[in-house]
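Milestone 3.1: sequence recovery, worked example.
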């Protein structure tokens, strides 16, 4: 995975068949935004060059409960999509990749069985994004509910060696709160690897987007700020000097 320039990637998180944005990943929090296919199409119409899709029910429960909605989004849009949430086996990942998903995002599965990254990369090179979600400086899994004792930067290095195409680093402590980003944790992961780091969590202003680009991230995933109209996708892309591709 490469980014010709810093990319701004809208998030479409799906729970119970609807687009939602949670606060710090906690069930029962956040806001619903209706039809996820309509949300995805809206971001593409506004200039998104990629989309970040998450099956939240899958992330919490380990089973892809929103497969139909995700499939509908993939069929509806013409830009690459990266998908996470409930992907637990190499077979699941390969099936999704063969059906049109550009990159699969592995979190819990990669922590429980790191070799799954190598297994998928062997048949589908350059397609695995490993999600490292950090809370209080520790990688957490299972919908951000369980600690692992892993340091994000050290874990990132391990997954790069196993063939990961990119690291998705989410700062759970600020996720969904629109209180701003923390560049320190992002920089630590960026410095640990040569593959791209996609940053997520806390983006509230276009200055946050600029800060993450300056910290060395290759892209940023933005959710709540776009849905709430705090700034537009075009404004975020302009802040980093391009169309976000």
């Amino acid at each position: 995975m490469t980014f010709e320039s810093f990319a701004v990637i809208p998030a479409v998180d799906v729970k119970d068949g609807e687009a939602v944005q949670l606060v710090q990943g906690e069930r029962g929090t956040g806001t619903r935004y209706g039809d996820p296919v309509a949300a995805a199409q809206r971001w593409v119409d506004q200039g998104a060059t990629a989309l970040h899709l998450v099956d939240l029910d899958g992330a919490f429960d380990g089973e892809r409960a929103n497969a139909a909605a995700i499939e509908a989004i993939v069929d509806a849009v013409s830009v690459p999509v990266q998908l996470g949430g409930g992907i637990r086996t190499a077979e699941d990942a390969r099936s999704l990749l063969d059906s049109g998903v550009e990159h699969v995002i592995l979190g819990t599965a990669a922590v429980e069985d790191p070799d799954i990254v190598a297994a998928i990369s062997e048949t589908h090179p350059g397609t695995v994004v490993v999600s490292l979600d950090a809370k209080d400086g520790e990688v957490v899994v299972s919908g951000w509910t369980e600690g692992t004792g892993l340091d994000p930067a050290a874990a990132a290095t391990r997954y790069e060696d196993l063939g990961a195409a990119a690291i998705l680093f989410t700062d759970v402590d600020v996720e969904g709160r629109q209180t701003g980003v923390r560049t320190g944790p992002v920089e630590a992961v960026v410095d640990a690897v040569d593959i791209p780091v996609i940053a997520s969590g806390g983006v509230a202003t276009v200055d946050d987007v600029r800060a993450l680009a300056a910290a060395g991230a290759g892209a940023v995933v933005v959710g709540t700020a776009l849905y709430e109209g705090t700034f537009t996708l075009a404004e975020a892309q302009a802040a980093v000097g391009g169309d976000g591709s």
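DSSP finds eleven helices and twelve strands in the chain. The longest strand covers residues 7-15.
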